[in-house]
Amino acid sequence: MKILYSAMTAMVLLLAAGAAADPPQEYPRRIAVTGEGRVDIPPDMAIVTMTVNREAPTAREAVSANSAAMEKVMSALQELGIEARDLQTAGFSIQPQYTRLPRQPSEPGEATRKLTGYVVRNSLTVRVRAIDTVGEVLDKSVAVGINEGGSISFTNEDPSAALEKARIRAVEDAIKKARTLAGAAGVRLGDVLEIGEHSAGSPRPMQLAARSMEAGSAVPVAQGENTYRVTVNVSYAIAD
Question: How far apart are the first and last CA of the chain?
Answer without folding.
Answer: 56
